[in-house]
Specification:
Elements: E1 8-13, H1 17-28, E2 34-40, E3 55-56, H2 59-63, E4 70-73, H3 78-90, E5 94-97, H4 100-117, E6 120-122, H5 133-140, E7 146-152, H6 155-167, H7 171-180, H8 189-192, H9 195-209, E8 219-220, H10 228-236, E9 239-249, E10 254-265, E11 277-284, E12 290-295, H11 299-314, E13 330-331, E14 336-344, H12 351-354, E15 358-363, E16 366-374, H13 375-387, E17 391-394, H14 397-406
Parallel strand pairs: 1-2, 1-4, 2-3, 4-5, 5-6, 8-10, 10-13
Antiparallel strand pairs: 7-9, 7-11, 9-10, 11-12, 14-16, 14-17, 15-16
Helix pairs in contact: 1-11, 3-4, 4-9, 5-9, 6-7
Protein name: Homoserine dehydrogenase
Pfam families: Homoserine_dh (PF00742), NAD_binding_3 (PF03447)
InterPro entries: Asp/hSer_DH_NAD-bd, HDH_cat, NAD(P)-bd_dom_sf
C-alpha cells in the first residue's frame, strides 16, 4: 500500500465497486505519489483482496488522523456518508464523495460548511460516471448562461433498456444481467425508479443554473414498468426509449427539472447511447450544443472519476458555485408535457383523467394513450399512476400521431 515517493496520504471509506476502482487506479499510477493510508469498511467477515492490515472498522481512525491529506467517501449508506462528510468539512478537511443521494439531500448545508470552515468537497463521480460534467459546468460554463442540460445519467437503466431493445429480453431478465455484471444493485429501486437520476440532476441544477432543489420536488418516473411492447412500439416509429434527465430554462428564466422515460429519435444524440454508457448534452446560449459521452457504471470508470477529484484536490481545485451567487432562476412546474401512457385494460383510470386521454392503440390487453398535461398536475398524479403500474414516457405529438395511424386511429384525434 505504500509508495516510497508518496507525499500525499489518502484515506478511503468503502471498498465496494467504486472504492476498489479508486484503489486500483492509485496503485497503477505509481508516479502520482499517493499512499493509501487506510481503508475503512463495515463488514469484518467479508472476503477481500487485500490483507486485513489494510483496513480499519472505525471511521474515526481516518477522520481523526490529521496526517491524512485527502479523504474519499465511497459508501452506499447516505446517512452514514453525510456524517462522515460533515465531520470532515467541520474540521476543514478535503474530501471527495460519490454518494449522490447524500449530496442532493444536503447540498446547501455542505456548501455552507465549506465556506465557513475552509474545507473542500468534490464529487464528480456522483453524477456522470466517467463524464466530467460537473467540472465542465463549474469551470468552462461558469460565466455563460445555459438553456438546457439533458442526458442519460444512469448506466444501469440504460443497460436494461438496451438489452430489452436489442435482444428482446424481458425487463426482469435484463435487470438480472445488469445485477450480475455489477451495474445494478441487488435492490435496484434507486436506479430503475429514477431516484438516482433525480439526485444527479439536482447536482447539475446547482452547477449549471445556480438552483438548489430537493430531489422530491423534481418530476420523476422510472423504467420499472416498461415492457417489451413499449420498446417495440418505439422501434416501429424509428425511436428508442431512454431514461432522460432534463434541466431547461424558458424565456422567462424559469427552470424546469424532470426525469422521464423518453422516446428519442435518430436525430437525438441520446439515441446512440447504449448499454451502461451515459451521455449528456449541454446547450449554452452562445457556444452551441456540446455532447459528452462515457461509461456510467463499473469499477474503473467510477474509480477514475474519483481519482480525477483526488488529483484536482491535490492541485488545490475547489468548486465556487458561480451561478448560485446570482440566484437568477426560479423553479417552473407550469410547463406542459406531451406523454405516452400504457396500462392494462383492467386498470380503472380516474374518470377525470380518462376524459383527457387520447387513445392511440389497443394491443395484447393493453391500452395506449397520449396526454397533454402540466408538470405540476403530473406531480400530483405520480403516486396514483405508479400504484396502477402505468408506464409513463415523454413523447412528441408527431410521434403519438404515428402510433395512432399505425393502428387506424384518425390523426385528427391527436392534439
Amino acid at each position: 500500500m505504500k509508495n516510497r515517493q508518496s507525499n500525499i496520504r489518502l484515506g478511503i471509506f468503502g471498498f465496494g465497486c467504486v472504492g476498489q476502482g479508486l484503489y486500483n487506479v492509485v496503485q497503477t499510477i505509481a508516479q502520482a505519489g499517493i499512499e493509501v493510508a487506510k481503508i475503512c469498511v463495515k463488514d469484518r467477515e467479508k472476503p477481500r483482496t487485500l490483507p486485513t492490515s489494510a483496513f480499519t472498522y472505525d471511521p474515526q481512525e481516518l477522520l481523526q488522523d490529521t496526517s491524512i491529506n485527502i479523504l474519499a467517501e465511497l459508501i452506499s449508506d447516505a446517512d452514514e456518508a453525510y456524517h462522515i462528510v460533515k465531520q470532515a468539512l467541520l474540521a476543514g478537511r478535503t474530501i471527495v464523495s460519490a454518494n449522490k443521494k447524500m449530496l442532493a439531500r444536503h447540498l446547501p448545508e455542505l456548501i455552507t460548511l465549506q465556506q465557513n470552515y475552509g474545507g473542500t468537497l468534490l464529487y464528480e463521480a456522483a453524477v456522470g460516471g466517467s463524464i466530467p460534467i460537473i467540472r465542465t459546468l463549474e469551470s468552462y460554463y461558469s460565466a455563460e448562461p445555459l438553456t438546457k442540460v439533458r442526458g442519460i445519467l444512469n448506466g444501469s437503466s440504460n443497460y436494461i433498456l438496451t438489452k430489452m431493445e436489442a435482444e428482446s429480453l424481458s425487463y426482469s431478465l435484463a435487470l438480472q444481467q445488469a445485477q450480475e455484471l455489477g451495474f445494478a444493485e441487488a435492490i435496484p429501486t434507486l436506479d430503475v425508479g429514477g431516484y438516482d437520476t433525480v439526485n444527479k440532476l439536482s447536482l447539475i441544477a446547482a452547477h449549471g443554473f445556480g438552483a438548489t432543489v430537493q430531489p422530491e420536488d423534481v418530476l420523476r418516473f422510472g423504467i420499472n414498468t416498461v415492457t417489451e411492447a413499449d420498446l417495440t412500439i418505439a422501434q416501429t416509429i424509428n425511436s428508442r426509449i431512454r431514461l432522460v434527465a432534463t434541466a431547461a430554462v424558458d424565456e422567462d428564466n424559469k427552470l424546469t427539472l424532470r426525469v422521464l422515460p423518453t422516446f428519442v429519435t435518430e436525430a437525438d444524440e441520446l439515441y446512440y447511447v447504449q448499454n451502461e454508457t451515459n451521455g449528456v448534452s449541454i446547450d449554452p446560449v452562445f457556444a452551441g450544443e456540446q455532447f459528452l459521452k462515457g461509461s456510467g457504471a463499473g469499477s474503473f470508470p467510477t474509480g477514475s472519476a474519483v481519482w480525477a477529484d483526488v488529483s484536482a484536490a491535490i492541485a488545490g481545485y475547489r468548486y465556487t458555485y458561480p451561478k448560485a451567487a446570482k440566484k437568477t432562476v426560479a423553479i417552473n412546474q407550469e410547463s406542459e408535457l406531451f406523454l405516452y401512457l400504457r396500462c392494462t385494460e383492467e386498470v380503472e383510470l380516474a374518470p377525470a383523467l380518462k376524459l383527457r386521454l387520447n387513445l392511440l392503440q389497443t394491443t395484447a390487453g393493453d391500452s395506449i394513450y397520449s396526454l397533454l398535461i402540466k408538470e405540476r398536475e403530473l406531480l400530483r398524479l405520480h403516486s396514483y399512476l405508479s400504484d396502477q403500474q402505468v408506464f409513463v414516457a415523454e413523447i412528441t405529438a408527431e410521434q403519438a400521431k404515428l402510433i395512432a395511424l399505425q393502428s387506424g386511429v384518425a390523426e385528427a384525434m391527436i392534439y
